[in-house]
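Protein 1 of 2
SEQ + STRUCT:
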Amino acid sequence: MRNVITLAGIALAFALAAPASQAAENFDGLWAKTAKDCRNKEGPDSKTLIDMSKPIGGKPAPMVDQYENHCRIDRKTVVGDGVHLSVTCFEFWEYFNKGIEPRKATFKLAPGPNGTIKIDGKAHLRCKMPASGR
């Protein structure tokens, strides 16, 4: 009987932990405030790439990438059905790669209606990822 109770307790713990661990993964992808911003073009817009497992130099380097705002995710904290990301950001890729002029920031991610998410309280829709040219 003790084994049954122990197994039930372990199963319950996994069931309760699964949504929290899955929450962060639902935010991966390319997001923008409007469909117009989703177009693959250079220049300032609202596109935000969230990649919790992006490899850089052969090592996992979770990041949030926006126009002239390249951020390494230092810590993920699950808050309800959302996630707070503590990040270190750099204005340019060269600065990111060399660790020059870092600044600390926090992104607050939460699920929104109809497959959208909220980034710092502002609604974003998922963009189609550009073809990789394979």
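Protein 2 of 2
SEQ + STRUCT:
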Amino acid sequence: MESESYKYEESVRSICPEVTDFELSRFVSLLTFKELKKKDLFLQSGKVQKAIGFISKGLVRSFYIDHEGNEITVGFYAEGDYVTHYPAFLSREPSKYSIQCLEPTSLFCLSFEDQQWIYQQFPSFERYGRLVAEEILKRQQARIESFIFQTAEERYLDFIKRQPTLFNRVSLSHLCSFLGIERQTLTRIRQKLAHQ
């Protein structure tokens, strides 16, 4: 766990290098370590998210269930990513999404109350939180715009380019759901690309 904690500390320093050793040690003392099995839920829709998670090992997906009962994947998060439904986390409202482990997953978790406390005590962590929130917002905006401005093939190629390590870690059904396409469409896209 100590080496995984070190990875998290390095992630914090890479985003916010002005954090002092004392501030970082106080921050780390507030974290809890959680290990989840494949298929476990980090967050269940309809529940208030108690803590934001940082993935030190593993892979999760965020999804919702549509009006026809289908699971629609909206995001994949792997090592080094934060896992959260951030707007619901901040507003303390029930989430519309579930977050499920696709692999055994280890996370460092920070409760909402501890997050607010660390922001009040150390302004450098408030900056860190803002930068993380901006990254989450950029990802969400890119996802929305991919459905507005890209074809299914372009979304597939963009996924491979942006997340090459995830390609072999997610099921085709979850990938199709994420890309907003049927499995047959993905097969056609892959065949077309293989012949180019």
